[in-house]
Amino acid sequence: MILVTGGAGFIGGNFVLDWLAAGGEALVNLDALTYAGNPETLATLAGDARHVFVHGDICDRPLLDRLLATHRPRAIVHFAAESHVDRSIHGPGEFIRTNIEGTFTLLEAARAYWNTLDAAARRAFRFHHVSTDEVYGSLRADEAPFCEEHPYQPNSPYSASKAASDHLARAWFHTYGLPVLATHCSNNYGPFHFPEKLIPLTIVNALAGRTLPVYGDGLNVRDWLYVGDHCRAIRDVLAQGRPGETYNIGGGNEMTNIDIVRAVCALLDELRPDPAGSRERLIAFVADRPGHDRRYAIDARKIGRELGWRPRETFESGLRKTVRWYLDHPEWVANVQSGAYRGWIDKHYGGAGT
Length: 354
Ligand code: NAD
Ligand code: DAU
Fold this sequence. Notes:
By secondary structure, the chain is α/β, with parallel strands linked by helices. The protein has a single domain (2-349), classed as NAD(P)-binding Rossmann-like Domain (Rossmann fold), CATH 3.40.50.720. Helix content is 44%, strand content 16%. The chain has 13 helices and twelve strands. It has helices at residues 10-21, 61-71, 85-90, 93-114, 119-124, 157-176, 198-207, 227-240, 257-271, 301-307, 315-328, 330-338, 340-349, and strands spanning 2-5, 27-31, 51-55, 75-78, 126-132, 180-185, 187-189, 212-215, 221-226, 246-249, 254-256, 283-286. The strands form three sheets. A seven-stranded parallel β-sheet has the order 3-2-1-4-5-6-10, with helices on both faces. The protein has a three-stranded mixed β-sheet with strand order 7-9-11. Strands 8-12 form a two-stranded parallel sheet. The two termini are 17 Å apart. It binds nicotinamide-adenine-dinucleotide and 2'deoxy-thymidine-5'-diphospho-alpha-D-glucose. The site of 2'deoxy-thymidine-5'-diphospho-alpha-D-glucose has 19 residues, from helix 7 and strand 8.
């Protein structure tokens, strides 16, 4: 048994689905079902006894203690977070609570539980902290990609809160010996991505004939990775990673935002032509994000060298899969946009989970 936090979100949801599809052991999925948590993502697992969903908060220590004592996981994979930079600018409080206090609470609960295990189980236990490349700050055009030793220079409330949580995880390894693994991944894209982030927002807006907002000059650069490749990297690190180590994960796909938006438009124009003309007509340059990081890029050589991980999807194949998925799942999109999935929560979990 493993415990996953945030497994109703974008990456956590993909991880849970991939883990069980790959024949992984049963898991407890603890998620507070914030606006970003969507149980419809997990609908195909209905009736699968290997998936135990718990509607709850990582800041709730008694709940964490109860779950750990009852299910006795061999590992925790910690995705739960507030994840959207723009939201962190409008309201940083929730980012401090979930990302810092939540991670602290989870680390403390994990440590207490880990101390009850016998020597062999203590050695085998893993706490996998899922982090981001944004903690390293912004790169100039001529700078080398982020390696694991790159100094921390977080620039947004989101990345500062993730950086703080990274420091806590590191300290729990060094001070208490808790077997912590940490991964820093670049921008993910793929199925079940909430349409507030650039790629899903562009897809759903373009399909609806709405404006495609591009911040500033559109030349900020991100390194894009298909979510399935990230999930596989986490499985590899969990299985073979060395406690106390961090691993950077990236796709080697540096692209400007405007090129991303144009690539999405081109695919939609091909797969679902619009009689009104190319979707590029919908692109609008809008006010920039305050403190907008210019460039992220990941040096993923360590995980390649030590664990043999490499991305399987190219940006072209991954984006095509993603666009097709959104075209094939209009109900998921409509329910997310209307908020109807929130009614689904009450219907399926009675407001309290299982
Ligand atoms: P997301 O916003 O889609 O999902 C977050 C999930 O956490 C949601 O299901 C939400 O309900 C849950 N959650 C939030 N607060 C909670 C709390 N207090 N208790 C329990 N559950 C709570 O995020 P995501 O994009 O899937 O990101 C997952 C993790 O990966 C985050 O830690 C993020 O920092 C990291 N990450 C994301 C990316 C990316 O490109 N999206 C890249 C690198 C790292
Ligand atoms: O790098 C990893 C990070 O990637 C994760 O840690 C975050 O959780 C995840 O949200 C993502 O952060 P970004 O801020 O890079 O992602 P976002 O999709 O919000 O924006 C991508 C780029 O597109 C960024 O330069 C801002 C720009 N953008 C975004 C939106 C939503 C636009 O130009 N227009 C938009 O409407």
